[in-house]
Design brief:
- The complex is a heterodimer of chains A (308) and B (314).
- Chain A has 308 residues and is mainly α.
- Chain A contains eleven helices and four strands, in the order H-H-H-H-E-E-E-E-H-H-H-H-H-H-H.
- Chain A has a single domain, classed as ABC transporter involved in vitamin B12 uptake, BtuC (Orthogonal Bundle).
- In chain A, 71% of the residues lie in helices and 5% in strands.
- In chain A, helix 1 packs antiparallel against helix 10 and helix 9 packs across helix 10.
- The model of chain A has no long low-confidence stretch (mean pLDDT 84).
- With 314 residues, chain B is mostly helical.
- In chain B, a hairpin with a 2-residue loop joins strand 2 and strand 3.
- Chain B is globular, with a radius of gyration of 19 Å.
- The mean pLDDT of chain B is 84.
- The chains are: A mainly alpha (308), B mainly alpha (314).
- At the A-B interface, helix 4, helix 9 and helix 11 of A face helix 5, helix 11 and helix 13 of B.
């Protein structure tokens, strides 16, 4: 393949990665923004979403679409409930102290991961996509007879990948509407700005926290359900999304939601493109190191305002 | 007895108990105990920063690994004699700690944890990237013939135990001394209230950097000692898991106590040893202990002891 079509293929892959990444890092960002809690177990909620999707689809059987739609509803809901429960039991007990919640969520990470290992097992298991048509893509070239369109061999995508991109966009818009246009969003924003004043005005801050923690985890699970027909469900799959979401949230500015979206698109796209053209390990080394340096020199993130 | 006397007695009796245990315990357990002592050195290194200075690093595996690879690579690739290799291991951990400290200490709180985590992740990936030298995840073995010092074969059970005990005692007593010194007291002051320590005229930045370097050096000694005594160097020791372990040990034993790290490693080692004979998901135990500790006993074993029984515990 020539460079042009190759780049287009890479950016399509990047767009799929980016759209899943937007969902997971929005989850992390909302939790940090409202509760000031760094959730290290976020990657495991993602993994749990994928594993539950496998359980739901293999339980229901029948046409893959039936199972997939069910998983799309059930998995985020269950993961959200588990997260809300762990907020109630563990984080609330710690009074949301920044250092201690990090340690506790590290513990939660191992509990979720190892419980999955004990029940789901160490194998990677596939989930069948609800539909999967191969779509060949055209490429334009300026030849002797003006613009010519041709179909390079290997330049193709699947309908499912396009669906992932569209679905992520829809979820993102819904989330934006939830935060800016509904009462729940108003309460969330009030709690984010000043939880004590919110409490004084009769907002049940404790319940808002549980809901936000559940919502964050559900977003991660939703991203995982979308990606699981492309990847496979595995008990260790949470590590990479966790690191990438961390990077996104930091670059985007801690707690800034628009920044998170921009950073997720930027990093997802470049991750997809870089790993097609360069050694993935080297790309990861550079990315991780650069993000650490960003934090060192600009702790508020690239798009964040001043440090709090 | 004065407090100073009491703590000296405590430290010496811990060491005496370790000497006695070698003669009492069957070989399997004394083998375990030498591993525990080496890991306890690592935990003590972590404790300097976390327990006494109040800085939570989530990237200490990079210092452990720096000591380990500095030692292992200079023997296997450079053909250095063992004591020189050990010094190289110590030097690489110290240098890495100095650079990391210089950069990461610009941040505080959550940002510090994430920056150290990411530096450690970078270090881990670098180990994988240079897989042709480091053999990546698979790791490499240091031949028994290389593990000789002054004609003593370190692969025998007795020599290994004695070496581990000597290194442990040296670090243990040195750190107990540092903690009691004005420098150590200043670190505690920084942990309790950095703003006030600065107001009193202490240069907290320099103190934190020194604590970081000391902590990295001790962790590096543990890494080099691990490679020297057990003959294996691998990328596993640079993973996030090995940054979490010292946190777990120190929290369990009691952060900011001198003998807490040893106790934490001891209990955790046998807990994991026991649970891995039951299930492959032995890290589940680590997770549960971590959550329970943060919820119910953030002071750890020795911290609770200090709070309830022995207020003088160093």
């Amino acid at each position: 393949m020539e460079f042009g079509p190759h780049l287009m293929l890479a950016s399509l892959e990047g767009a799929v990665i980016a759209s899943v990444l937007v969902l997971t890092s929005m989850g992390l960002s909302i939790v940090f923004g409202v509760m000031r809690v760094v959730n290290v177990a976020h990657g495991e909620f993602y993994m749990l979403g994928a594993v539950l999707a496998w359980y739901v689809t293999s339980l229901l059987g029948g046409h893959p679409a039936v199972g997939f739609v069910a998983a799309l509803v059930v998995a985020p809901l269950l993961v959200g409930l588990i997260a809300a429960l762990s907020d109630r039991v563990i984080l609330k007990h710690l009074k949301y102290d920044a250092d201690r919640t990090i340690v506790a969520t590290i513990g939660l990470l191992y509990i979720i991961q190892q419980t999955t290992l004990m029940t789901f097992g160490p194998d990677a298991r596939p989930v069948e996509p609800p539909f999967n048509h191969r779509l060949a893509l055209p490429w334009f070239e300026f030849g002797e007879g003006g613009f010519a369109m041709y179909w390079p061999w290997g330049l193709s995508t699947t309908s499912y990948k396009l669906f992932v991109i569209a679905a992520a966009a829809v979820v993102l818009v819904a989330l934006w509407l939830l935060i800016t246009r509904t009462k729940i969003g108003l309460i969330m924003r009030a709690t984010q700005q000043d939880s004590e004043t919110a409490q004084a005005f009769g907002i049940p801050v404790g319940r808002v926290y549980s809901m936000v923690f559940g919502l964050g985890a559900a977003l991660a699970a939703l991203g995982a359900v979308l990606v699981v027909p492309i990847q496979q469900a595995h008990y260790l799959m949470g590590a990479d999304p966790l690191l990438l979401s961390f990077i996104v949230v930091i670059i985007g500015g801690l707690g800034s939601l628009p920044g998170t979206v921009v950073a997720a698109l930027l990093i997802g796209m470049s991750d997809g493109i870089i790993s097609v053209f360069f050694s993935p390990t080297l790309a990861k080394i550079l990315a991780t190191f650069l993000v650490a340096m960003v934090l060192v020199w600009r702790p508020q993130g690239l798009f964040g305002r001043s440090a709090t | 007895m004065t407090v100073r006397r009491k703590s000296a007695t405590l430290h010496l009796s811990v060491l005496a108990a370790l000497v006695a245990l070698f003669f009492i315990l069957p070989p399997y357990h004394s083998g375990n105990l030498s591993r525990i002592m080496v890991l306890a050195i690592y935990a003590m290194g972590f404790n300097i920063l976390f327990g006494y200075t109040g800085l939570l690093s989530l990237g200490h595996a990079m210092f452990f690994a720096a000591g380990m690879y500095g030692f292992g690579l200079s023997i296997n690739l450079g053909g250095a004699p063992l004591p020189v290799a050990f010094l190289i291991g110590m030097a690489s951990a110290t240098a890495l700690a100095a650079v990391t400290g210089f950069l990461a200490l610009r941040t505080t709180g959550v940002a510090f944890m994430i920056v150290t985590l990411m530096f450690a992740q970078t270090a881990y990936l670098v180990v994988l990237y240079f897989g042709s030298y480091t053999r990546g995840d698979e790791g490499f073995v240091i031949q028994s013939a290389e593990r000789m010092i002054f004609g003593i074969d370190l692969t025998t059970e007795g020599a290994r135990y004695v070496t581990a005990l000597l290194l442990f005692s040296a670090c243990f007593l040195a750190l107990a001394r540092v903690i009691g010194s004005p420098f150590g007291r200043t670190l505690v002051a920084i942990r309790e209230n950095e703003e006030r320590a600065r107001m009193l005229g202490y240069d907290t930045g320099v103190h934190k950097l020194k604590a970081m370097i000391l902590s990295g050096l001790i962790s590096g000694i543990a890494g080099a000692a691990y490679a020297m005594l057990f003959g294996y160097v691998g990328a596993t020791f640079a993973t996030v898991q090995y940054s979490i372990f010292p946190l777990l040990w120190v929290l369990l034993g009691g952060a900011g106590t001198t003998i807490g790290p040893l106790l934490g490693v001891f209990f955790m080692f046998y807990l994991i040893d026991f649970s891995s004979s039951v299930t492959t998901a032995y890290m589940l135990v680590a997770g549960v202990v971590l959550v329970l500790l943060t919820m119910f006993a953030p002071q750890g074993l020795m911290g609770e002891m200090r709070k309830r029984v022995f207020p003088w515990l160093p």
